Amino acid sequence: MPGKVLTGAADSEAAVDKWLLDTVGMPEKLHMRLRREGGIQWKGDRLRLALFPHREAGIEPVWQEQELDVLHEDDFCLVVHKPAGMAVHPDGSGVGVTLDHLVAAHYAASGGGVAVRHIHRLDKDTTGPVLYAKNEFAQLALDEDMREKTISRQYVAIVKGVVPPTLKVIDAPIGRDRHHAVRRRVSPGGQAAITRIVGCKVLRGASLLSVQLETGRTHQIRVHLSHMGHPLYGDELYGGPAWAGATGVSTRVQGWLKTDSPSGSSSADRQALHGELLTFSHPWSGERLAVNDPWPEDMLRLRDLLAGGAQV
To answer: What is the DSSP track for 98-124?
Structure first.
């Protein structure tokens, strides 16, 4: 309901376009499509927009006994917790249930008609919040926010060794490792990558870090911290120590340190990295939203063991 923007305008059509583009911030691509398809209508001071057309999910829904952990949802956005051991989207192999499959089932349970559109990704064995757009308006707006780096992602990481308090920023380009199909490395010819350490707590031979990303390169936190001599616990790919062995307790800890992985794999199989906070601007209202994702049990237990607060 733009109000006098429409009723007081000499040219209502031009006033509608200006309000949508300048005040609402509608992406030009979407505005043009709605104009072309008759998706913008008005009467008096009321404006009707076809922002929620029926769309196919784009991926088969998969229902599991364990419900999807929804952290935030409204008409435009969905934020869900990604457990360890689950990829965000299929890798082309056709094997394994992904977060996208579960989100498709979540939409289907609410009547369907929503395409599955993740805005960012997490590594398969990293836990944390993943943001989804529920319509084209949200997708275009949030994709632009990702490019402009206004979507903030804060992680907690448990790493080997004592990180010096002077280490605040890691600014080092990241590229592929030509000797390994999956691994990345710091390389002068790589893509620009900046990681900020915004908090540090010293544990027994380890550090608990709060980390923010300015860029979103593959394996960025893992590569940067390993490059600085502080690989993540459980990150075998980048030289991190095993969870159980590093605590100085018996290997039976591996059976006790369970992840929230759907496969039930042990924490020794994954890096100690969790996304604890996702902050973004709502694509329609502009309100700044902060979505917290509680630490998984395995990370809490490893922290307690390294802090000397747990006995096994």
So the answer is: -HHHHHHHHHHHTT-----EESS---T
Quote the pTM value. 0.87
pLDDT tens digits, residue range 227-278? Answer: 999 999 999 999 999 987 555 544 444 454 554 455 444 445 689 999 999 9
**Could you read off the pLDDT of 80-107 as tens digits, one per residue?**
999 999 999 998 776 789 999 999 999 9
Q: Which two tokens stand for residue 190?
A: 């790589």
By C-alpha distance, which of 195, 199, 198, 200 is closest to 170?
A: 195
The crossing angle, in degrees rounded to 10, of helices 28-37 and 136-147 is: 160
94, two tokens: 């056709």
| CA 242/CA 236 separation, integer angstroms | 8
How many residues appear in the chain?
312
Residue 249 confidence (pLDDT): 45
Rounded Cα–Cα distance for residues 194 and 124 (Å): 21
Residue 10 has pLDDT above 80, yes or no: no
Q: How open is the CA angle 268-271-274, to the nearest 5 degrees?
A: 125
3-state secondary structure 226-289: HHCCCCECCCHHHCCCCHHHHCCCCCCHHHHCECCCCCCCEHHHCCCEEEEEEEEECCCCCCEE
* Catalytic residue IDs: 123
- Asked whether the beta carbons of 217 and 229 are under 8 A apart, the reply is no
Ordered DSSP codes for 30-59:
HHHHHHHHT-EEEETTEEEE--------SS
| Cα–Cα dist 302/307, whole Å | 8
